Amino acid sequence: MASDERLARFRQAHLNPFNKTPEQQDRPDGGAPPPPPAPGGYRTPVPGGRRPPPPHGITPRFAARRPDPSPGDPEGALDLGLAEDHFSRPVGLLLASDVPQLRRAIEECKRAILALPEQSERQKDAVVRLIHLRLKLQELKDPGEDEPNIRVVLEHRFYKEKSKSVKQMCDKCSTIIWGLIQTWYTCTGCYYRCHSKCLPLVSKPCVRAKVSHQAEYQLSICPESGLDSQDYRCAECRTPVSLRGVPSEARQCDYTGLYYCSSCHWNDLAVVPARAIHNWDFEPRKVSRCSMRYLALMVSRPVLKLREINPLLFNYVEELVEIRKLRQDILLMKPYFITCKEAMEARLLLQLQDRQHFVENDEMYSLQDLIDIEAGRLSCSLTEIHTLFAKHIKLDCERCQAKGFVCELCKEGDVLFPFDSHTSVCTDCSAVFHRDCYYDNSTTCPKCARLSLRKRSLFQDSGAETEP
Question: Can you tell me the distance from the alpha carbon of 168 to that of 178, in angstroms, rounded to the nearest whole number?
Answer without folding.
Answer: 8
